[in-house]
Amino acid sequence: MKGKIAALYHYPVKGLSPQQLDRVSLTPGEGFPHDRVFGFARHNSGLDPDNWRPLPKNRFLVLMTDAALAGLKTHYDPATGAFTIREGGVLKLETTLDTAEGADAAVDYMATYLDLPPGNRPSLARGGDNRFTDISVVSAQMMNAVSLINLASVRDFEKKTGNAVDPLRFRGNIYFDGWPPLAELGLVDREISLGNVRLRLCLRTRRCPATEVNPVTAERDMAVPKLLQQSYDHSDMGIYGEVIQGGTLTAGTEIAF
């Protein structure tokens, strides 16, 4: 079973914009580079900057609870720490997440944009060597798993529901094509190759209400988890993989089992 990688993405700030990559180098045990390394933690999240521990995703500003986040186009530059926010193509904030002053400016913007009460001001969480992935609470190993989306599975879901489905609803790291629909879901605990990279597929991705949000319109317009359940008797779309052999990926890299 062979296919090819179609696109690569990371999400430097949890809940905010995908950033497409031309290439990425993966290292065993280190996860997808610069993926979910920041997050805007809610005022009552229990975040302790001096004693890092994984937190459930509902402790952060995320699409699951804050659909309006999809209306922002954000970009983080790992090389410089520069962070920008645009609304409707208009630059609204240009700052850095690597200084206290820059982080405060980003927090102030998010609080104002979401119209949060003064007492509900979030804080910027920095993961450092850790990541604010949805499954970070499962284990340190799973915190560093990468997520894969089979585009044939998305197309099959479109056919079953009669709805156009933007694959970016699923916020994966590696989008690929050429495998049969849903083939990936049957490969838990099996190894696959992506060029010279090897992954052990380790967990199917159960979908939450974040996928209900249209990534273009920022409207909650499709009950994705419910429709997955109705279509397949489960709410899974995509799969997580652990990097067991590192290497470099680009669009066009062969993915095979």
Outline of the structure:
This protein has 257 residues and is α+β, with helices and mostly antiparallel strands. Helix content is 15%, strand content 32%. The model has no long low-confidence stretch (mean pLDDT 95).
Describe this structure in words.
With 257 residues, this protein is an alpha+beta fold. It folds into two domains: 149 residues, Beta Barrel (M1 Pyruvate Kinase, Domain 3), CATH 2.40.33; 89 residues, no CATH class. Helix content is 15%, strand content 32%. The protein is globular. The mean pLDDT is 95.
Task: Describe the SSE topology.
Layout: E1 2-10, E2 19-21, E3 23-26, E4 38-41, E5 72-76, E6 82-87, E7 90-96, H1 100-113, E8 123-126, H2 140-143, E9 146-150, H3 151-161, E10 174-177, E11 191-194, E12 197-206, H4 224-232, E13 236-245, E14 247-250, E15 254-256
Parallel strand pairs: 9-10
Antiparallel strand pairs: 1-2, 1-10, 1-15, 3-14, 4-8, 5-6, 6-7, 9-13, 11-12, 11-15, 12-13
